[in-house]
Specification:
This protein is globular. The chain is of the alpha+beta class. It is 39% helix and 25% strand. Strand 2 and strand 3 form a beta hairpin.
């Protein structure tokens, strides 16, 4: 099932530019980085909850914004394919991980139906030092041990 998550990422084309073209993610993230990442994710999930397409879209990476073009198209993709993060009952942050696509914030998410999934929020540091979402993988708890690692 390891390849299911990888296949999903490739099919959604969320990897953006080739990993080699990005600055190498650092395992030396500071506590401030971790806090900023978690705050950005909280802000985006809160924007989803308010159906604030512009607010949620503003927190997506430039590559994601380019791919979807408009906040409305982005929000429709989230509504139709990412129910657990669009309307979570609750969620818990776990560790940050180095994935083949860069830094990933691991989360346990309980979707609107109460089903538990593992979410890997892929993160991208911007030139100004802020963090933006560069995609999200949803993985069943049974596949958790197969989260792609760099």
């Amino acid at each position: 099932m390891k390849w299911r998550a990888l296949f999903m990422a490739l099919m959604l084309n969320i990897a953006g530019p080739a990993v080699a073209e990005r600055s190498a993610p650092s395992a030396n993230l500071t506590e401030a980085d971790a806090a900023a990442i978690r705050q950005m994710i909280n802000d985006q999930i809160n924007a989803f909850g308010r159906d604030d397409a512009d607010g949620a879209f503003a927190l997506a990476s430039p590559d994601i914004q380019k791919k979807f073009g408009t906040a409305e198209r982005y929000m429709e993709m989230v509504r139709s394919g990412y129910g657990p993060v669009y309307r979570p009952q609750r969620y818990e942050f776990r560790d940050l991980a180095l994935t083949p696509w860069g830094i990933g914030q691991l989360m346990t998410v309980f979707g609107p139906d109460g089903q538990e999934v593992m979410a890997v929020y892929l993160m991208e540091r911007q030139g100004d030092g802020t963090w933006r979402s560069d995609g999200c993988l949803l993985i069943s708890p049974d596949d958790e041990e197969n989260i792609p690692q760099a």
